[in-house]
Design a protein that fits this description.
It is a single chain. This protein is α/β, with parallel strands linked by helices. The strands form four sheets. A nine-stranded mixed beta sheet has the order 6-7-5-8-9-10-11-12-13, sandwiched between helices. Strand 12 and strand 13 form a beta hairpin. Helix 5 packs across helix 10, helix 5 packs across helix 11 and helix 10 packs across helix 11.
Length: 471
C-alpha cells in the first residue's frame, strides 16, 4: 500500500467503493486522514464493510468540513452530466481528485532523487496487454516493476514508493480526466478511435483526456506514440515539433524512418536513423496478430527509454505468457488450439482475434451490444464454423445465415464440446477453437473473467492427465 499523508488529520470524502475507491480509502486512512467512504449501491457498501472499511453517508455530512472528494473513475465527472455528488463538491468548493492524482502528488512530494520511475500507458485498444508486457519485460530483466492502475491492482494498493522501483500503470480516459500532477518518465499512447464519447462530451473531449498522459513531461522524458491511425499520427507529429518530450513513433503498418517498426513479423529499431533488426515476433507465441505487434513495438520503445538492452527486451517478449482472457492460449489437444479471448465483449474487440487466426471454430454470444456482429463480416471467411451461446444466439445465427456454418449450443460447455468434436474430425490444418464472444457475459456469468475461467476449466477437464499437469 502507498499511504497518502497529504490529508492527515483532515476529513476526506470518498465516493464509489469499487476496486480503486477501496484502495484510495485505505491509503488515506493509513496516511492519517479521517475517511468518509460511501457508495450508492447497497451491495458495494456491504463488500466495503466486509473489507474492513467504516462507512459514512456523505449525503448527510457537512460538506464544508471536507478537504477533498476522492471520486472513483466510474462516476460521471463532467458528461453526460456531473453526478450529484460532483455538483455537491463544486457548490461547496471541495476539490475533486482521483486515485491516480493522489499517487502523483505522493510521488511529487518526495525529493527528486527518491522518486520512482513512472510508465503510463493509454489508448483505445491494447492498454492492458502493453502494460502487462512492459511489466513482464522489466521483471524478466531483473527490474523492480510494479504493475497496476486500470489493470489488476489499484495504484494505491501497489508496494510503497521506492526510488529504484518502476511503476507501470494502465491509465483509462476516466482516470486521466482527474489527473493534474502526474509526471510520466515514459508516456505511451497506442492508438485512438471513438470510445466512451458520452463520458467525454464527444471525440474532442476524449482525445483531450488521453493527451493528459503527456502532461508535465520534460525534455528528459519519452513519449511513445502509435503511428497507425490518423489521430495519433497527428499527435506524434505535433509533439515532435513542439516538445518538450522526446517522441518515439511505433508502428505495425509502416517501416518508420525513425522509430520502432514491426514489419512482416519482424521488429526493427530505427531510432538512430538506421534500421536494426531486433528479432522475429513469430517467436513470441503470446503476441499473435498485427495489433499485438504494435503493442510489442510500443513495449520495446518504452523499455529502451528506460535503458534496457535490445536483446534483454526481446527475451522478455519471447517469454511473455500473455494476458488472461485476451487471446490467451489455454492449451492444445490433438492438434487443436483453445484460445480464451473472453475480454472481447464487443465486435471491435473480437475483430482483433478473428483477424489473427485462420480455420477458426468460433464461440460467440452472450448479451449483445448495439452493433451486434455485423462489423465482423470481413472476417467471416476465416471462420470454419460458429458455435453460439446465450441471449444473442438466435440473432447471431440470423446474422451468419448463408455466410458461416452455425450451431446454436445454449451453454459454453456445449459449445466447447461441439467445437472440439468438429475441429478434431475435420482434418484441417491448425484449427483454433476461439472464445471471442463479441458480447457481455451477464446472461450466464458474473463477468468476462468468470466466463474465461469457465472456458479454461472446461478445456483443462478435457485434457489427458499429463497435459493437464503442464497447463
Amino acid at each position: 500500500m502507498i499511504p497518502i499523508t497529504e490529508y492527515a488529520g483532515r476529513d476526506v470524502a470518498v465516493f464509489g467503493l469499487g476496486r480503486t475507491g477501496l484502495s484510495a480509502a485505505k491509503a488515506l486512512k493509513a496516511g492519517g486522514a479521517r475517511v468518509h467512504a460511501w457508495d450508492d449501491n447497497e451491495e458495494t457498501r456491504a463488500k466495503a464493510e466486509a473489507a474492513g472499511l467504516t462507512l459514512s453517508d456523505i449525503n448527510k455530512r457537512d460538506w464544508q468540513t471536507f478537504a477533498a472528494l476522492v471520486l472513483s473513475p466510474g462516476i460521471p465527472y463532467k458528461f453526460p452530466q456531473p453526478h450529484r455528488i460532483v455538483r455537491m463538491a463544486e457548490m461547496t468548493g471541495v476539490p475533486i481528485v482521483g486515485d491516480m492524482e493522489l499517487f502523483a502528488r505522493a510521488v511529487q512530494a518526495l525529493p527528486e532523487r527518491a522518486r520512482p520511475k513512472i510508465v503510463g500507458i493509454t489508448g483505445t485498444n491494447g492498454k492492458s496487454t502493453t502494460t502487462a508486457l512492459i511489466g513482464h519485460i522489466l521483471k524478466h530483466a531483473g527490474r523492480d516493476a510494479r504493475i497496476g492502475g486500470n489493470i489488476g491492482t489499484g495504484v494505491l494498493d501497489l508496494a510503497a514508493l521506492h526510488a529504484n522501483a518502476i511503476y507501470v500503470l494502465e491509465l483509462s480516459s476516466y482516470q486521466l480526466d482527474l489527473v493534474k500532477s502526474l509526471h510520466c518518465d515514459v508516456a505511451v499512447l497506442l492508438n485512438m478511435s471513438p470510445d466512451h464519447l458520452d463520458r467525454h462530451g464527444g471525440m474532442e473531449g476524449y482525445q483531450a483526456a488521453k493527451m493528459r498522459v503527456f502532461l508535465n513531461q520534460t525534455d528528459r522524458d519519452t513519449a511513445v506514440i502509435g503511428f497507425d491511425d490518423v489521430i495519433t499520427q497527428s499527435i506524434a507529429i505535433g509533439l515532435s515539433a513542439r516538445g518538450p518530450a522526446r517522441v518515439m513513433q511505433v508502428s505495425s503498418s509502416y517501416a518508420l524512418g525513425r522509430g520502432v517498426s514491426a514489419v512482416d513479423g519482424k521488429l526493427y529499431d530505427s531510432a538512430s536513423g538506421n534500421a536494426v533488426l531486433v528479432g522475429n515476433l513469430s517467436e513470441c507465441m503470446a503476441l499473435p496478430g498485427k495489433h499485438n505487434h504494435q503493442n510489442a513495438a510500443a513495449a520495446y520503445a518504452a523499455c529502451r527509454a528506460l535503458g534496457l538492452d535490445p536483446q534483454a527486451i526481446m527475451d522478455g517478449l519471447r517469454t511473455f505468457p500473455g494476458l488472461a482472457h485476451r487471446m490467451e492460449l489455454v492449451g492444445t489437444i490433438d492438434g487443436v488450439r483453445f484460445v480464451n479471448d473472453s475480454k472481447a465483449t464487443n465486435a471491435q474487440a473480437a475483430e482483433q482475434a478473428l483477424k489473427s487466426y485462420d480455420n477458426i471454430y468460433w464461440i460467440a454470444g452472450g448479451v449483445a451490444k448495439a452493433e451486434g456482429i455485423t462489423p465482423l463480416a470481413p472476417y467471416f471467411p476465416r471462420i470454419t464454423k460458429a458455435y453460439l451461446i446465450g441471449d444473442a444466439e438466435e440473432n447471431f445465427a440470423a446474422a451468419l445465415k448463408g455466410k458461416v456454418a452455425t450451431q446454436t449450443c445454449g451453454t459454453l460447455d456445449n459449445a466447447v464440446q461441439a467445437a472440439f468434436r468438429d475441429a478434431r474430425n475435420a482434418g484441417n490444418a491448425n484449427p483454433v477453437i476461439l472464445l471471442s464472444p463479441a458480447c457481455a457475459s451477464f446472461d450466464q456469468f458474473r463477468d468476462f473473467e468468470h466466463r474465461g475461467d469457465t472456458f479454461r476449466s472446461i478445456v483443462e477437464a478435457m485434457m489427458p492427465t499429463e497435459l493437464r499437469e503442464l497447463a
